[in-house]
UniProtKB/TrEMBL annotation:
GO biological process: negative regulation of gene expression
Entry GO terms, CC: cytoplasm; nucleus
Key words, A-Z: Glycosyltransferase, NAD, Nucleus, Transferase
Lineage: Eukaryota, Metazoa, Spiralia, Lophotrochozoa, Mollusca
Chief place where the protein resides: nucleus
Protein name: Poly [ADP-ribose] polymerase
Amino acid sequence: MNLTNFNNHLKKIMAFVGAPSRSSNNVDEVYLFDQMQNNCKEKNESDNSDKKTMGEDINSHNYKRFQKIEAQLEEINKKLGIQVQGKQLQEIGMKQSTYNNGPITDANSVTELADGVTKDALEMTAIHYRLLTPLCNSFNECIVQFDPINRALNFYGKLSLIRDCQTKVMLEMRKLKDETIVVSSEMMTLLSKERGKKYLDDLNSSGLNGAIVELGNLCVLVVAKEDVILSEAVKILEDKLNFCPIMIPKPEIPLERLKMAKLKLEYTLLVYVSFDDNKREIQISGVKEDVMIAIKEVNELFEEYKVYKRSVDVLGRGAIFLESFLSDHLIPLSFGSVEEIKFQTTKNDNVTVHLKGNRFEMQQAHSLLQSEANTIQVIRWDLFDEFTRHEVCLIANSFKSGVMKAKLETYKYKTKSLFIPDMSNMSFFIVSQANKDNPWNNSTKQISKDSQTVPKISSSSAESKSKLVFEITAECQLVVKSYGDMVSILGPDLDMRKTRVGSTFCSACPSHLMELKKEQKIQHGSPVVTIQKPSGLNCLAVCHVILAPWNPKKSLQQLNVALETVFKVANSLGAKSVSFPPMGCGRAFQFPPLKVAQQVVDSIRNEKSATVLNKVIFLALDSELYKGLKIEAARHFKSAVVPPKLVTSGTRNMAHDSEIQCADMDDCEYTDIVNNFLDVKCDSELPCHARITVATLNGNTVNSVKEIITDDIRKQCLHTEPINPRLMEHCPRESWLSILREAIKLSVCLKPSNQPHANQGEFHLIGEKHSVAELTLFIKHEYLERFTRVKKNTLTSGSIPKRGTVEFMTYAAESYESFPSYWSLSKSQSAFWKIFQVKPSNENRNILVDVDEETKDAITKFVTQTSDLHLVGLGNDAMGIKYSHLKVTDVKRVENQELFEKYRFERKILLQKMASRGHACEDIGKIPGSKGRVATSELLSESMKKELYHEVNEHYLFHGTKSDAIQNIIHNGLDPRLSNEEAMFGKGIYATEKMTKSDQYAGN
């Protein structure tokens, strides 16, 4: 086909596919048509050369466009039967690419493209172009395209037409108004995100009434065609973009929950969220609309954790048990986010419930609480209506620490019930005489608290409570107690809260601290601040002793002054008793107990002549202080005998130990246990009670629950078994002590049988079943060990361990000898058993007993051998004594069971002590500085040495005294308090190995 035919066919094909004519306004299409004509003129070039050139020159940027054109030409080839290829296609593709997308290096340059088609450019920003887009699209004379890279508006067409279009564009550009809005860096970051760009696009579309906004460098550029539109747009943008950060008080929300909320808000909204823990604030900044949305979501989050408080009244008798049922999970209520429920008991057994948490959950909780309270049934059950006095005592102990205490939890979950025991004052018991037919009933003395057959309901063990009484004068006693609380000791700051007793004062009498401060100003500088007739307290006065922490140089003097001041105040007020606390021996002041004990006794001695007091009570909770007072008081005062008191109805004052009322506390004491068995019971007139409050749930009737627990109480607490009378016959006193103490420990009552034909000594054991069984075994053990084997481990046994060894000391400590074998009591079995049936008494038999001839001869011999006639009359103590010969006329042995039993007990402790150390006491003769062994033991006959325990340095010694003191000594023993204070080593018991020395004190 020739070129002319090709052109004709090409025109037809172009017309077929929509190709423009020469008069077409579509410059791109005309240009493409011209290029296709020009390219067809080069058709005759070889295909191989063209393809090679095409493969080498076509760049990747225009390859896709070239492929499209090639596809179009292939379609034309099919129509015309010709082929345009090679370099022609390359040139077409390259020129088309350059025209549409190619870079413009000079925006103001005019470029001639082809056949009168010109390209020209006008500098313009994108924001201006957006406003002028409608104008640019309206041009038909030329084609207008915006180049965002080079910020230019390109015009394609005839130059004259381009100039006309450019003129119109420039005229419109002059009308445009622009302004910049400075924004924060955080806002720039937000707007630079995809969500921020979309936000600006949305504003440009419809939010600014024709104005256009564009993101600049730390600013936002706003362009509009009119000043009014620009002004309104700037105002809108400043309100939206320069919105002040919002500060919201931060409630108590978990940090992890806040972090999750922050991530969500910053992901979905154009906002920044930050926390300020110091100011407890949440700061939200960003685009105004999104900030408001974020605030709403944060407030909704706060609602989940916002704390509301509400107080509601729960009515009904069972309301007071709601708290217990809830805490024990007997009421399976779910209160959701209610974080706090406080119960406050009001009048008529109603309860005010203080709720704290979510409002909805609080309302729901209130409804549930009231509903459950209405289903609770309550009774108060008096045990004395069902049981006898001694049974109630046992039940009370079981509820405190026995089987019933453990069973309360079982009852609780088994019956959905609460059991609240109230055994007020059930710790007080008295002793009544046993049946007159009982041969052991020869005393009306009371059993001590250490010997009760029914244990006390107390936090302290009975053995830890003890009391010492000394005679200061004939009218005044010193009482040292290891229990109870008295008056207050304060520091210089008068802060009563720093000591336990002071805190108790504050709680018992709230106005006391104000009174103390007032009196301190009046009595400024005094070591003791006295409040007379304090309000709310039943006493003449309270003396607050002001002490400072222990100072070795000053504290004892300060303590002495304080004690003197207290005694003067007590005497001036006419007080009959005064009570002291441990006087600085606690944690607050840390005074040494032994030094305090010495100072206290010295102060009492100095005041005894002027005192009008009947009783000085000293509290010694610390064991070291108690021992110190015991030792110091014993050196200077005689031990007082506490007369036994039989407590009868209406005579007993059941005052509790307290910080103030201390005068009545000593009336609650008991004397030591006596030999006869006494029935222990609770006095019927004592103001004590034993009740159990029962509250039930889930429709359980109170009476059915009561029946269940009553039956169980009888089975568990009041199990009764008789004891074989033979086990109790001729029971020695020491065994009774052991049995009664074991009964205390096990909470078992020994009750004489009330059967009309019961044998003498027949008893019943009442208590918890396992405890009764244990006590029965214990009684049998006592019977076997102390009755049938009473002579076990004696020095007169056939085989004993080697003397001086640890084995022997252990053996001797376990000895059951109640007195030496050579005593007259050991001569007959009847006498031996008799001493256990009644309390040993000096009035019932002779204490001074004749010794056998062997003993008399032995003592006479070593009296003679230890006499040194050259020393007679020498020394201050021997002045006036003159004799040249001494004759032993008689020898008597003192057989005082009571004294020897005490002595034997202390000797047993010493043997145990040395056995635990692994060696005997060092021989006196071997101690450095000693002049030899004890002379009396060296000269004593072997028969008399046999039952001496030289392992603990037990020796016979001489003690000289006047004849008028003999009776007191043989009945009561040697008393160091009656000795001379001016003796060489002070008060004490003096004995010697030389008869001559002791004779100096024997008088005429």
